[in-house]
């Protein structure tokens, strides 16, 4: 019975982690077309790093977001000499975000979240059936 209840802890931790991943992707997408201010640095894409986390004193393991790291790839340089943020050569420094990659990451995180919801619902159904049988 307690192992069935651990499913809720495991899937819950995964759902929280995927939610943070979705928020990070949303932030990246929102800043995909931002331009660096004059003399400043542009927005850098961020990515979550997951880690396995023990749940309690048994062998159960969940997942958490260990940290959110900035992407180290250089900014996109776009030739636009009319932009006030352009450098002396006419290039504007923009965020290093690949929108297609971010969309794939968003779909992956969304599907992972949905899968954990389905596992939680299946466990709930089994738990309710167990309670019905034991009465």
Automatic annotation (TrEMBL):
Ranges for domain Flagellar basal body rod protein N-terminal: 11-35
KW NADP (keyword) present: no
Transmembrane segments: none
Biological process annotations from GO: bacterial-type flagellum-dependent swarming motility
Flagellar basal-body/hook protein C-terminal domain sequence ranges: 89-132
Origin species: Candidatus Methylospira mobilis
Localization per record: Bacterial flagellum basal body
Superkingdom of origin: Bacteria
Protein family per UniProt: Belongs to the flagella basal body rod proteins family.
Name of the protein this chain belongs to: Flagellar basal-body rod protein FlgC
Lineage, highest ranks first: Bacteria, Pseudomonadati, Pseudomonadota, Gammaproteobacteria, Methylococcales
Oligomeric and partner information: The basal body constitutes a major portion of the flagellar organelle and consists of four rings (L,P,S, and M) mounted on a central rod. The rod consists of about 26 subunits of FlgG in the distal portion, and FlgB, FlgC and FlgF are thought to build up the proximal portion of the rod with about 6 subunits each.
Keyword Transmembrane in annotation: no
Main location class: other
Keywords: Bacterial flagellum, Cell projection, Cilium, Flagellum
């Amino acid at each position: 019975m307690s192992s069935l209840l651990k499913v809720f802890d495991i899937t819950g931790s995964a759902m929280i982690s995927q939610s943070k991943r979705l928020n990070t992707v949303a932030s990246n997408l929102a800043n995909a077309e931002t331009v660096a201010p004059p003399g400043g640095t542009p927005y850098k894409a961020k990515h979550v790093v997951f880690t396995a986390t023990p749940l309690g004193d048994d062998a159960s393991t969940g997942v958490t977001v260990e940290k959110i790291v900035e992407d180290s790839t250089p900014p996109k340089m776009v030739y636009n000499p009319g932009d006030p943020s352009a450098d002396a050569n006419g290039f504007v420094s923009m965020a290093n975000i690949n929108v297609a990659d971010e969309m794939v990451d968003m779909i992956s995180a969304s599907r992972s979240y949905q899968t954990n919801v389905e596992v939680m619902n299946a466990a709930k159904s089994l738990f309710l059936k167990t309670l019905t049988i034991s009465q």
